[in-house]
C-alpha cells in the first residue's frame, strides 16, 4: 500500500508541475498542437491538381504552342495565360493568381531544329511545399511528350551506323505504382511517420526539462522519502512509475488528437483498428518515458534539452526505416534503430495504419518496444538514485 501511495503522490505532483509551468505548456501546445497542425497544413494539398500556371512564350512557334497544350493537359497544372510577359507573370504570382511560371526562350524551336537541347525556365511559389514538385512533374512530363514527338525527325543528326539501332529499338513504357499510398501524395507517405516522431520528441523534451529543473532547484531530494534517506529500488521504481503514469495519461490524450483526429481532418491513411493503435502506443509511450528519465543523468538544468532540437526529426525518420530500407543500413545504424523507441515505434505505426498490417506482422517492433521498456525502466531507477545521491552531496557541500 505504501508503494501505491508513493506512486500516486509522485504522479499527482508531476501532474501539477506540468500544468503550472509555462515552459512545459509551451512545449506541449507548440509541439503537439501547433507542430502537428502546421506539418499537416504545409502538406495539405498532398496531391496538387489543376494548379494555375502562367506561361511566358517568347518563342511563339508551333512547337512551343504544342508544349503549352501538353502542359495544360497534365493533371497537375492548368495554363491560366500564355500571353503575359515575364514582369506581368511575376505580378500574377505576387497576387497569388498563379502558383508557377514557365518561361520559354525565343530560341526554343531553333535549338530543337539544330538537334540541340531545348531549354525552358520554371518558377514556382513556396506557399506550399508541394507546388514546386507538381510544377516540376508537369513541365518535365510535357517536355518528354514533346521529345517523343520530335525524336523521329532528329535521326538526321545521328551518325549513319547509329540510326538503325535507334529506329529498331522498341520504346519502354514505365508505369510506377506507389504501394500503400492511395493518393500517391507526399503528405500521405510522410505525415504518419512525422506524427509518431512528434510524440517522441516532445515527450523527451518535457521529461528532460522537468528532470533538469528538479536537479537545478534540488527538488529531486523529495523523492528520497520524508527523511531523505530511502534510496531503495522499490522507492525509485515508485518514482519512475508515478512519473511515467502521468506522461502516459497526457500523451494518451495527445495521441487521440495526433493519430486519431488529424488523419480524419487531413484525409491521411487510418487503416488500423483503434485497439491496435492503443496496443502499440502503450509500450511506445512507456519506453519513451523511461528513456527520457534515464537520460536525466545528462541534464542538470531545464534549458539544455532545447539545444537538441536540431538533432531530431529528420534523423529519426531515416532510422525508422520508413524512408530508407532498414536492411540497407550499415549495422551500426541498425543497432541505433533498436535503441531509440521512435524508430521501431514509427515503423510499426506506419505498417499497421498505412499498410494495413496486423499485430503479428509488427511483432518484431512490438517486442523490441517492450524490451526497451524493461531495460530503460531499470536504467531510470538507477539514474534517479544516482541523481539523488549527487544532489544530496551537493546540498551537504553547500551547507558545510
Automatic annotation (TrEMBL):
> Primary place of residence?
membrane
One cellular-component annotation, GO: plasma membrane
For membrane topology, the record states:
Multi-pass membrane protein
Give a yes or no for keyword Transmembrane helix in this entry: yes
Record GO terms (molecular function): ABC-type transporter activity
What's in the keyword line of the UniProt record? Cell membrane, Membrane, Transmembrane, Transmembrane helix
Gene3D superfamilies per record = abc type-2 transporter like domain
Please state every residue range assigned to the domain named ABC-2 type transporter transmembrane. Answer: 24-381
Keyword Transmembrane present in the record's keywords: the answer is yes
Where can this protein be found? Cell membrane
Signal peptide span: none
Q: Which domain of life is it from?
A: Bacteria
Q: Which InterPro entries match?
A: ABC-2_transporter_component, ABC2_TM
Could you identify this protein by its name? ABC transporter permease
Organism annotation: Phocaeicola sartorii
Amino acid at each position: 500500500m505504501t508503494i501505491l501511495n508513493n506512486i500516486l503522490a509522485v504522479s499527482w505532483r508531476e501532474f501539477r508541475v506540468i500544468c503550472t509551468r509555462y515552459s512545459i505548456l509551451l512545449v506541449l501546445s507548440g509541439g503537439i498542437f501547433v507542430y502537428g497542425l502546421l506539418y499537416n497544413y504545409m502538406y495539405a494539398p498532398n496531391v496538387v491538381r489543376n494548379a494555375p500556371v502562367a506561361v511566358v512564350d517568347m518563342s511563339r512557334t508551333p512547337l512551343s504552342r504544342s508544349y503549352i497544350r501538353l502542359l495544360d493537359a497534365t493533371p497537375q497544372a492548368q495554363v491560366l495565360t500564355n500571353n503575359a510577359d515575364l514582369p506581368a507573370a511575376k505580378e500574377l504570382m505576387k497576387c497569388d493568381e498563379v502558383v508557377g511560371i514557365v518561361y520559354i526562350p525565343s530560341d526554343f524551336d531553333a535549338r530543337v531544329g539544330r538537334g540541340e537541347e531545348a531549354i525552358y525556365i520554371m518558377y514556382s511559389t513556396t506557399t506550399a511545399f508541394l507546388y514546386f514538385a507538381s510544377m516540376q512533374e508537369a513541365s518535365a512530363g510535357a517536355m518528354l511528350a514533346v521529345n517523343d514527338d520530335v525524336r523521329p525527325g532528329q535521326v538526321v543528326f545521328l551518325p549513319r551506323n547509329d540510326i538503325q539501332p535507334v529506329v529498331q529499338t522498341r520504346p519502354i513504357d514505365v508505369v510506377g505504382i506507389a504501394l500503400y499510398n492511395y493518393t500517391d501524395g507526399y503528405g500521405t507517405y510522410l505525415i504518419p511517420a512525422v506524427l509518431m516522431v512528434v510524440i517522441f520528441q516532445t515527450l523527451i523534451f518535457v521529461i528532460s526539462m522537468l528532470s533538469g529543473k528538479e536537479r537545478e532547484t534540488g527538488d529531486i531530494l523529495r523523492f528520497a522519502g520524508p527523511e531523505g534517506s530511502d534510496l531503495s529500488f522499490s522507492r525509485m521504481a515508485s518514482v519512475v512509475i508515478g512519473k511515467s503514469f502521468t506522461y502516459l495519461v497526457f500523451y494518451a490524450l495527445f495521441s487521440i488528437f495526433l493519430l486519431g483526429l488529424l488523419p480524419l481532418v487531413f484525409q491521411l491513411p487510418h487503416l488500423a483498428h483503434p485497439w491496435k493503435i492503443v496496443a502499440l502506443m502503450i509500450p511506445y509511450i512507456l519506453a519513451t518515458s523511461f528513456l527520457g528519465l534515464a537520460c536525466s543523468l545528462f541534464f542538470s538544468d531545464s534549458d539544455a534539452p532545447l539545444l537538441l532540437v536540431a538533432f531530431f526529426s529528420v534523423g529519426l525518420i531515416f532510422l525508422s526505416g520508413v524512408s530508407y530500407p532498414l536492411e540497407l543500413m550499415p549495422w551500426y545504424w541498425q543497432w541505433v534503430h533498436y535503441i531509440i523507441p521512435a524508430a521501431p515505434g514509427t515503423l510499426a505505426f506506419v505498417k499497421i495504419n498505412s499498410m494495413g498490417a496486423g499485430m503479428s506482422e509488427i511483432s518484431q517492433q512490438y517486442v523490441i518496444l517492450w524490451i526497451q521498456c524493461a531495460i530503460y525502466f531499470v536504467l531510470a531507477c538507477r539514474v534517479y538514485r544516482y541523481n539523488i545521491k549527487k544532489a544530496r552531496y551537493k546540498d551537504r557541500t553547500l551547507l558545510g
